[in-house]
Description:
This is Peptidoglycan DD-metalloendopeptidase family protein. By secondary structure, this protein is α+β, with helices and mostly antiparallel strands. It has 10 helices and 12 strands.
Amino acid sequence: MKKRNRVIVCCLLVFGMSSILPVYAQDYSDSGYWVQKCSQPQSSQADVQACQGFQTYQQQRYEELQANIEQYSNDIASLQADTEKMEELAKTQKELQETLEGQIQEKEEALQTIQEQIKKLDTEIQKKQAEIDAWNEQIVSRMKEEQSNTGTNMVVDLIMGASDLNDMLRRITGLERITEDDQDQIEQLKELKEELDLQKSEQVRLEEDTQAQQDQLESQRQQAKQLEESYNQLAAQYQQKMAELQAAKQAAFKDIESLRSNMISVSYSGTLTNVSGFTAPISGGRISAGTWAYPGGGLHLGMDYAVPIGTPVKAPANGVILYAANPAPSNGGYLGNWSGYPFGGGNTFEMICMVNGTTYAISFAHLSREGFAVSAGQSVVQGQTLALTGNSGNSSGPHCHIEVYNLGTMSLEEAISRFSSSADFAWGTGWNSTATACENGHGTPCRERPERFFG
């Protein structure tokens, strides 16, 4: 490099110069990767521009979700007693909720990372600024000393007296001497200054991103709450129609041979062991819907435990599994999802047991596919973990639905024979009335209120 160019480098250092890089097209589909990358300070202008592109992409995702939620809200407002439309909107709500929760989680994780990086960046900026100041003072001092030895103050005048970059370039004509050592230090100082400028601009970008994400996060949390409220209203409307739909679906004949692999064999030769009382099958949670009606109206023939997905379901007594199948995704439930057997049960099992000399059948529905630890014909003991709760089948949220049938003095052999011939979880009590409730004086088999034993 010529001596004149060396001084130009020094001048550019003093007055600064920004680089203009082309914008590169990026694939932002792996948002988790880009959230993690862009929540940290970038080391090049190309990376900065890529992150600016990702921020635009995120904004588009946010705006698209807002439009979808607004459309969903409009559809809810115009909804009448159309069960098919209710089921369609319930599925839409679940998809919107999952997308919204995903974006909220992304923002929460990004904000935590950004705040940590801003603190770290502030420390690095202060350290680098101090280093640059020290280097700059050293270079100016050396140049002053060097020029005093040659009897001229031209370099000092150029560095200290120029008003801007154009003035510097005009004054530089005729300057011929600067040492290689000076040049090396100037080059290193230039690199430090570029790093400092980038870090300062990244600090501003991260701070602006923090504010924007905090604003969006608060808005989306409010939307999540509103979505849940609108969904609860939708579920209440749907539950008014649920009884007749459920009765029609669950009472529908199904080819027993298609269920045979999930049913106990008629050749089963075990026995029932009597216990002195039931124990609760699920710990914690709350009863979100009791027997015989939903809180919002509509027939409900069992008890719902509202608990997080993955909560253990334990045997309430010693018993034998009559039916067990887990064909549905653990968290794939929505209103109108009729997967599983009985229809809409998702992942289900039914067991038979004897408590205080009375034979009972107990069914569990909407379980997780994972952790499903029972099979037909299996003997279980009281307190044994049999499955995990889920949100499968015709379900409006994570919970476990339990029904209890009093079979009186029915023997295990008789119960197996009857179940094998009918695959009827309801034991002839039906699906559309409370008339077969034991408390209404109906003879066995009859439906018990699960709260009587587990409430």
